[in-house]
Every structure is written in structure tokens, then in C-alpha cells.
């Protein structure tokens, strides 16, 4: 199976956001990965609903929205209305995770769970069957361009085993520091979705870089 490639728009040129989205439309990217940060769950603040809606007007591919925010349950319906096709919330930010996953699904969006690097995949045992996707952070969330955390390989394999044991259909997404050097090994450990930010947008030829990632199997 070919991987699902989800370039992270956070690494794009915001001054030319429409042209960046149009470039992704022309590429072999499968999804657009949208990082929402509130300055509380993570140190940085990114864009909100107006920018998301602007991206949606030009995007021809599904929007994979990653909420790095506290109390995400307060905004699920708004993110869906702004164009989110998949909404991923952090395990660490949800007091009632099962309820929040059901809330996401009730909007018609796919429901994802994100785990910080220090959070064990074993904590998902009771909810993995309710998730459409699990996003493993392979860097500490909040900043782009960080170095890939090597423990992600072991964690990906452990998550794949848990998914099989629980008869879950959840996809495994890897977010942070993904590039041509580690993509193959991540797929071999069980990853399905690769999020790539600066590796794509800093490349001399982003469309070819996306194609190169897509060709890995």
C-alpha cells in the first residue's frame, strides 16, 4: 500500500497561501494537514477559523485538522463547519476522550487521537476501537523543523500491534521530522499517513518531494 501523504500547511509561505494550496492540489498529496495551536496546550499560536475557511475555498483535497488546543470539545462543530474532514484531538487535552471522539463523529468528520512523545500507546486500549486515526507526535508539538525522535519506530510498532489486537480500523499517522530518510522504516513499522512540513515546503521542488514520499511502499 502506498502511504497517505499529508503536507503540513504550517510550514508553507503564509504570504502566498493560495498558491501554496494550489501547488498541493496539483501534487500527489492526499490530504492537507492543518495544525491549530492555541498558545496554551503548546507555546505557539497558529491560525484559526478565518484562515482555515480561506484554505478550504482553494483546497481540492481533504483537510486533516490537528487540534493542539485545550478544551477542544468546545470547538468541534466550528472546525467541522470551517472545512475539517478529519479532526484529531490530543489524548493529553481531553478529560472525556471517548465522549469527544463521539462528538467528532456526530459531525460527520473522522475522529483522530494524537499522542505526545511521552504518552504510551497502551493508554489507548479502551478507545482505540472508536478512533479512525492515531497521530503519533515524532517531535514535541508546537514548533516545526524539529529533529525526529527515534523512539517513534518502537512506538509505531507497538501501536500497530494494539490496533490488531483490538480489531480496530484506525490509521497510524506520524507527525514531525518525517523525511526521505525515515519514511520507509516508519511504513515498515505500520505507519499509514506521513505528515511532512518543512521537508516539503523548503524543498527546491515540493511537488517532486511529495511524489518521492508517495512512491515509497
TrEMBL record:
Keywords associated with the record: Carbohydrate metabolism, Isomerase, Metal-binding
Cofactor binding description: Binds 1 divalent metal cation per subunit.
UniProt-listed NCBIfam families: PRK05581.1-4, rpe
Listed name of the protein: Ribulose-phosphate 3-epimerase
Family to which the UniProt record says this protein belongs: Belongs to the ribulose-phosphate 3-epimerase family.
Enzyme Commission numbers on file: 5.1.3.1
Catalytic-site annotation from UniProt: 35, 175
Sequence positions that bind a divalent metal cation: 33, 35, 66, 175
Pfam families given in the database record: Ribul_P_3_epim
Catalysis performed (reactions): D-ribulose 5-phosphate = D-xylulose 5-phosphate
Cofactors, names only: Mn(2+); a divalent metal cation; Zn(2+); Co(2+)
Organism, scientific name: Pontibacter rugosus
Coiled coil: none
UniProt superkingdom: Bacteria
GO molecular function per UniProt: D-ribulose-phosphate 3-epimerase activity
Pathway as given in its UniProt record: Carbohydrate degradation
Amino acid at each position: 500500500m502506498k502511504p497517505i501523504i499529508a503536507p503540513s500547511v504550517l510550514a508553507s509561505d503564509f504570504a502566498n497561501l493560495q498558491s501554496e494550496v494550489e501547488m498541493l492540489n496539483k501534487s500527489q498529496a492526499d490530504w492537507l494537514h492543518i495544525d491549530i495551536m492555541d498558545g496554551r496546550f503548546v507555546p505557539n499560536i497558529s491560525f484559526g477559523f478565518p484562515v482555515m475557511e480561506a484554505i478550504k475555498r482553494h483546497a481540492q483535497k481533504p483537510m486533516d485538522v490537528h487540534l493542539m488546543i485545550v478544551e477542544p470539545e468546545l470547538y468541534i462543530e466550528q472546525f467541522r463547519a470551517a472545512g475539517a474532514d478529519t479532526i484529531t484531538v490530543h489524548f493529553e487535552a481531553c478529560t472525556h476522550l471517548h465522549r469527544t471522539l463521539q462528538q467528532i463523529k456526530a459531525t460527520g468528520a473522522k475522529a483522530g487521537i494524537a499522542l505526545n512523545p511521552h504518552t504510551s500507546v497502551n493508554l489507548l486500549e479502551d478507545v482505540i476501537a472508536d478512533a479512525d486515526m492515531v497521530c503519533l507526535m515524532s517531535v514535541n508539538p508546537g514548533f516545526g523543523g524539529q529533529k525526529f525522535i527515534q523512539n517513534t519506530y518502537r512506538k509505531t510498532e507497538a501501536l500497530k500491534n494494539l490496533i490488531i489486537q483490538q480489531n480496530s480500523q484506525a490509521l497510524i499517522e506520524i507527525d514531525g521530522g518525517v523525511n526521505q530518510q525515515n519514511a520507509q522504516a516508519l511504513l515498515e513499522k505500520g505507519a499509514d499517513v506521513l505528515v511532512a512540513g518543512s521537508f516539503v515546503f523548503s524543498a527546491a521542488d515540493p511537488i517532486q518531494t511529495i511524489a518521492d514520499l508517495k512512491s515509497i511502499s
